[in-house]
Structures are given as C-alpha cells and as structure tokens.
Amino acid sequence: MSDKCALCNELNNTRHVAYIGEHVFIVVNLRLLKPGHVLILPKKHWESFDELTAAEAKEMFEVIEKCSKALKIVYGYYPIVAINPLTRRSEKHVHIHLLPSDHGLRDYIATYENLPHNEEAPSEIREIIKESIAKAMNEIE
C-alpha cells in the first residue's frame, strides 16, 4: 500500500467501500459521473494490470460480474465497464470503472469523438488492424 495513494486510503477508511473481497474491493468513485459509478480495484497497490496475480485478476473479473448484476438491481441498467490507460488515470492504482447506463460504450465514444455509431468497417481495414495487433502482441513479453 502507498500512503500517497488515495485509492489505497479508501480501503483503510471504508466509508465509501461497498464490498471487500479476498483480493479486491469496490469503492464509490470520489468524482462521480452519476450515481452508481464505482471502481473495482485490488487491495494491493499495483500500477499496472500485468502486476496482478492470477488470483487477483480472477477475482476482479468475478467481482465485475457480480457488481454488474447489483448495479442492474439498484439502478435498472447494467454498467459500462471501462479501463483508463495508465497515462490517463488520476490515481496510478489499477482500477476498473463501472457506470450504470442505458447507453452502450459505442454510443458514448461515437458521440464524444464524432465517429459513426454503427457503420460496418471494410474487411480490408479489419485485416490490417488484426495483423498490426497480432504483430505487436508477439513483440510483447
């Protein structure tokens, strides 16, 4: 744990912690976009997802699934699940955002970035993207 990490301190305070598991916890976001906006994060202070143990990663995804169902019960909508890249996080503690919404992630990104909402990509473009990503994946340890 880092004394300088506000998210680590949330686990110690527990005032806004909605769930504590063996390896992860859920906290209500300090900077709410709307009611129900929560973060799921490991108890240990990790800055990168590749630092998570297999048990932490497994529990994170199990808790995402369970919390998604809980948000549906409380707010009437399943959440959008989002991960900010390390360079865009206000806190360097690994976390995943859940935000109940009657819109999908595609709607938000397309609107915000002025992109087509549901236009089919040409097969050639998809193949170029596939090859680029496959090559990069092979270059990463």
Notes on the protein architecture:
This protein is an alpha+beta fold and 141 residues long. It has a domain of 97 residues: HIT-like (HIT family, subunit A). It is 39% helix and 16% strand. The chain contains 4 helices and 5 strands. Strands 1-2-3-5-4 form a 5-stranded antiparallel sheet, with helices on both faces. The protein is globular.
Please describe the structure with a list of short key phrases separated by commas or semicolons.
alpha+beta; HIT family, subunit A; 5-stranded antiparallel sheet; 39% helix
Evaluate the radius of gyration. Answer: 17 Å
State the share of residues found in helices, binned by percent. 25-40%
Q: Give the integer mean of the pLDDT values.
A: 88
Predict the CATH topology of the domain at 6-102: HIT family, subunit A
The backbone outline, from C-alpha atoms, is globular
Poorly predicted parts: none
Give the CATH architecture of the domain at 6-102.
2-Layer Sandwich
CATH superfamily of the domain at 6-102: HIT-like
Q: Which CATH C-level class of the domain at 6-102 is it?
A: Alpha Beta
Q: Which sequence of SSEs, written as H and E, runs from N to C?
A: HEEEHEEHH
Q: How many distinct beta strands? A: 5
Order of strands across the biggest sheet?
1-2-3-5-4
Strand content: 15-25%
What's the main sheet like?
Answer: 5 strands, antiparallel
Number of helices: 4
Q: Determine the N-to-C terminus distance.
A: 27 Å
The assigned structural class equals alpha+beta
